[in-house]
Design brief:
The complex is a heterodimer of chains A (221) and B (258).
Chain A: H1 7-16, E1 23-26, H2 30-33, E2 43-46, E3 50-51, E4 84-85, H3 88-95, E5 100-105, E6 108-110, E7 115-116, H4 132-138, E8 141-146, E9 157-158, E10 173-176, E11 179-184, E12 187-193, H5 199-204, E13 210-218
Chain B: H1 8-12, E1 20-23, H2 33-42, E2 47-51, E3 53-54, H3 59-63, E4 76-81, E5 83-84, H4 96-102, E6 107-110, H5 113-124, E7 130-132, E8 146-149, E9 152-157, E10 164-173, E11 178-179, H6 188-194, E12 197-206, E13 225-228, H7 237-250
Parallel strand pairs in B: 1-2, 1-10, 2-4, 3-5, 4-6, 10-12, 12-13
Antiparallel strand pairs in B: 7-9, 8-9, 10-11
Helix pairs in contact in B: 5-6
Classes of the chains: A alpha/beta (221), B alpha/beta (258).
Chain lengths: 221, 258
């Protein structure tokens, strides 16, 4: 079996896509790992009302924990120079302003950039939308991190979503454990592939046709 | 002027069955757990609850004496929240929520954090509703009027005017002017503005003139009742901080998954 990228490598690759001066929101799951690789020139936003906070705290320094400095995922963070704090109306005005780059986990992405991030099809599932619909709708760019396939091997990049849609036509680029794929008006463009994998192998694991960028290359970290 | 300072029981005394209640619930920061405990003790039924998240407080924290918002579950008729935990309802058993929903005892309405904040703001500013672009073509458009304005699709969202808002702030003066701290601000200022009756829990009540007016986020005109958390309570500033730090040392960096 060939190796797929670890979540850490995936996080490192996504962060490379950010520009100095970017403001960025990190969703739950792999996107949260991006925080560890974030350059100082990128400011992180959290839905519950802060921008530009410092690193998450580790068990080594419990005396620094402040119960009033918590991110949207319930993690305690350190304050940092330049941090700002605000209420949730302001936070979601920021989210919908087109100023944030949003990194979200995904369950499925379609050729048109439609995103499924919630499972809601079962009668016994409850809404766990959180801020994801707002984040996907209003961002400057939506970057999706996800495994290329489900645990059972089914493709998560599809012609049409089979799960309920969370936001239509919102995805800019998909970062999977096999490839970097840009969503364009002409369809999906394979830009980078994981070390050791061929383009035809990746196409076979994808549920929609990929065109290949002229400068397609191996993913670097 | 009548005092706005109440005990928790006094503050809850006139809340009736069927009341619509809004509360910031998001981890420990800004969540009025001291007031939620009093609401649970008051025992009113058939409530509609608007809240940011609906998740249990972690088991370790409840063992230390913190209340858990999900303990309100038997008292609810309707829940409106962007984020409802489904499986982690410790005290009730895994399928408690499922059973209540299936039996029609509890209605759950999906929304998003941004839409909830805008709906409270619409309530606060007496709007009849507003057209929102979020969630078109998704499950949250169910039952809502759809309208195209300048080529963009929108959903009609209705304002929220809760009967009672339960909020938390860092400090209040005797007039009810409020200062928040960190991410504890959250949706609390919006709940204060939208609610017909606003009850706040604070760590400290100071004399009039002691708060810098430039730092007041919620003006006292919105605050009807102020409840001070006693120093001896686990929810007090000192005890809460020490408990969280002690548990943090033992566990990883998380107080409860949101």
């Amino acid at each position: 079996m060939k190796e797929r990228l670890s979540e850490e490598l995936l996080a490192m690759r996504v962060v490379k896509d950010l520009q100095p001066g970017d403001y960025c929101n990190l969703g739950l799951g792999t996107p949260q790992l991006c925080a560890s690789y974030m350059p100082e020139s990128v400011k992180v936003h959290t839905e519950n009302g802060a921008i530009g906070y410092g690193p998450l705290l580790s068990c080594a320094n419990p005396e620094m924990v402040d119960p009033d400095l918590m991110d949207a995922g319930g993690k305690y963070f350190s304050p940092a120079p330049g941090m700002s704090l605000f209420d949730i109306l302001t936070s979601f005005a920021i989210i919908r302003s087109g100023r944030l780059t949003t990194i979200l986990g995904g369950l499925q992405v379609s050729v048109k950039g439609d995103l499924a991030i919630h499972t809601l099809s079962e009668a016994d599932e409850y809404p766990q939308i959180g801020g994801a619909m707002d984040l996907a709708w209003g961002a400057k760019r939506v970057l999706i991190t996800m495994s290329h396939n489900t645990k059972r091997g089914a493709p998560k990049i599809l012609k049409e979503l089979s799960l309920p849609v969370s936001a239509r036509g919102c995805v800019d680029t998909i970062f999977t454990d096999l490839a970097v794929i840009k969503v364009t008006p002409q369809g999906l463009l394979l830009q980078e592939y994981a070390p050791g994998w061929t383009i035809s192998e990746i196409q076979a694991l994808t549920g929609a046709p990929l065109s290949v960028a002229d400068n397609v290359r191996e993913i670097e970290f | 002027m009548e005092s706005k300072i109440y005990t928790p029981a006094e503050a809850m005394a006139d809340i009736q069955d069927g009341a619509h209640i809004a509360a910031h619930i998001w981890g420990l920061a800004g969540t009025p757990l001291y007031l939620l405990r009093a609401l649970i003790e008051r025992g009113v039924k058939d409530l509609t609850l608007y809240c940011s998240t609906f998740l249990p407080t972690s088991l370790k924290l409840t063992e230390m004496g913190f209340s858990s918002p999900v303990d309100l579950l038997p008292q609810l008729q309707k829940l409106v929240s962007p984020f409802v935990g489904s499986r982690a309802f410790g005290n009730f058993g895994g399928d408690f929520l499922d059973q209540r929903v299936r039996n029609g005892e509890l209605e759950i309405e999906a929304t998003t954090h941004g839409v909830l904040a805008s709906r409270l703001h619409a309530g606060a500013t007496s709007l009849g509703g507003f057209y929102s672009p979020i969630g078109t073509g998704t499950i949250i458009e169910r039952g809502k009027e759809k309208r195209i304005i300048d080529g963009q699709e929108y959903l009609l969202e209705k304002p929220i005017r809760p009967d009672v808002g339960l909020i938390k702030a860092d400090r209040a003066d005797r007039l009810g002017n409020l200062v928040y701290r960190g991410t504890g601000r959250g949706i609390n200022p919006l709940i204060a503005m939208a609610s017909r009756l606003t009850i706040v829990e604070v760590f400290e009540i100071v004399e009039v003139g002691e708060l810098d007016p430039e730092t007041v986020i919620t003006p006292g005109i919105y605050v009807d009742r102020i409840v001070k958390i006693p120093e001896a309570d686990i929810n007090s500033k000192k005890q809460r901080r020490e408990t969280v730090r002690r548990l943090f040392k033992e566990n990883q960096n998380s107080e409860g998954k949101n």
